[in-house]
């Protein structure tokens, strides 16, 4: 199977300038659509300058685009959120005409609850009702692009048995054109924070649903954040991909029959001059793994 290699584009000039020598080595760019918009309450979403810069990079390198959102709020269905969702769909449809996203994914969880933006996706109960909500939200996104999906999210807690999540994903992704973005670092982070075996979670997962894999690095929370001084693993995309994630990738990627891309993630504000060589090496390793897949 042919599996492409991708890299995230971030809305930061220094990030794009420093990594310019590496960007021609990937097959596609992954974009969080909302990073290319100006948002004002109640007003239409309009492009910012990064939309044009990202499109220029795609043209320059002959790379295609995939979309990976953060704020659609995949697991919630609050009627008061409909105006925001409608603005989102309108803007995304305009973007699709330019970026021609091959697929769109968003994080499993809720980012808007009771009219309030909670920023990072919060876990929701793994019930049939929530699975139906996810499926319905995916169907709405299919108005824009036919291939859509959710990403397993890095969490510090879960509502229910974490090993029940693969079965929940089966229910939520039962629709035609509904896929899973398997984030291996998110999985490692959640396992460390919540307490379960990564291998057991993966053994329960239907790997035929995986369209894309993410790899990334992270760090640990400041012990001063909590009175207990407990330290959590964070999916900060701020450091090198840890070796356990590489090992999981080499084991899992050949077992995903519908895998189309593997994406290396890095966050804006985390790439200094000294990080370029490290990312260059990670891209080389990723390309070698992808090209060796049967």
Summarize the structure in short.
The chain has 294 residues and is α/β, with parallel strands linked by helices. It has helices at residues 13-18, 49-61, 82-99, 128-141, 165-172, 184-195, 198-203, 243-252, 275-291, and strands at residues 4-8, 28-31, 37-38, 46-47, 64-69, 104-107, 110-113, 116-122, 148-151, 178-183, 210-215, 219-220, 233-234, 261-264.
Indicate the low-confidence ranges by residue numbers: none
Largest sheet features: 8 strands, parallel, barrel
CATH fourth-tier homologous superfamily? Divalent-metal-dependent TIM barrel enzymes
Strand pairing plus helix content: what structural class? Answer: alpha/beta
Number of continuous helical runs:
9
Mean pLDDT: 94
Task: State the end-to-end CA separation.
Answer: 6 Å
Would you give an account of this structure?
This protein is of the alpha/beta class and 294 residues long. The protein has a single domain, classed as Divalent-metal-dependent TIM barrel enzymes (TIM Barrel, Alpha-Beta Barrel). It has nine helices and 14 strands. The protein has an eight-stranded parallel beta barrel with strand order 1-2-5-6-9-10-11-14, surrounded by five helices. It has a two-stranded antiparallel ribbon with strand order 3-4. A two-stranded antiparallel ribbon has the order 7-8. Strand 3 and strand 4 form a beta hairpin.
């Amino acid at each position: 199977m042919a599996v492409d290699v991708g890299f995230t584009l971030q809305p930061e000039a220094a990030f794009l300038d420093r990594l310019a020598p590496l960007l021609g080595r990937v097959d596609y760019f992954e974009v969080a659509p909302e990073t290319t918009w100006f948002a004002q309450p109640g007003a239409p979403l309009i492009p910012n300058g990064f939309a044009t810069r990202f499109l220029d990079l795609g043209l320059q390198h002959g790379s295609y685009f995939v979309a990976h959102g953060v704020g659609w709020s995949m697991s919630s269905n609050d009627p008061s959120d409909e105006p925001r969702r409608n603005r989102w769909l309108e803007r995304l449809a305009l973007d699709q005409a330019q970026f021609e996203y091959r697929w769109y994914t968003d994080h499993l969880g809720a980012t808007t609850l009771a009219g309030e933006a909670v920023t990072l996706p919060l876990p929701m109960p793994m019930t049939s009702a929530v699975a139906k909500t996810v499926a319905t939200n995916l169907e709405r996104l299919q108005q824009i692009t036919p291939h859509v999906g959710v990403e397993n999210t890095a969490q510090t807690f879960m509502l229910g048995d974490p090993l029940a999540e693969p079965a929940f994903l089966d229910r939520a992704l039962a629709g035609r054109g509904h896929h899973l973005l398997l984030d291996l670092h998110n999985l490692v982070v959640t396992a460390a924070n919540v307490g379960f075996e990564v291998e057991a979670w993966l053994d329960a997962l239907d790997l035929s649903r995986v369209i894309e894999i993410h790899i990334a690095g992270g760090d640990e929370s400041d012990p001063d954040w909590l009175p207990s001084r407990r330290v959590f693993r964070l999916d900060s995309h701020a450091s090198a991909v840890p070796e356990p994630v590489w090992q999981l990738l080499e084991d899992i990627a050949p077992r995903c029959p519908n895998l189309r891309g593997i994406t290396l993630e890095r966050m804006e504000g985390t790439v200094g001059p000294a990080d370029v060589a490290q990312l260059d090496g990670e891209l080389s390793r990723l390309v070698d793994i992808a090209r060796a897949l049967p």
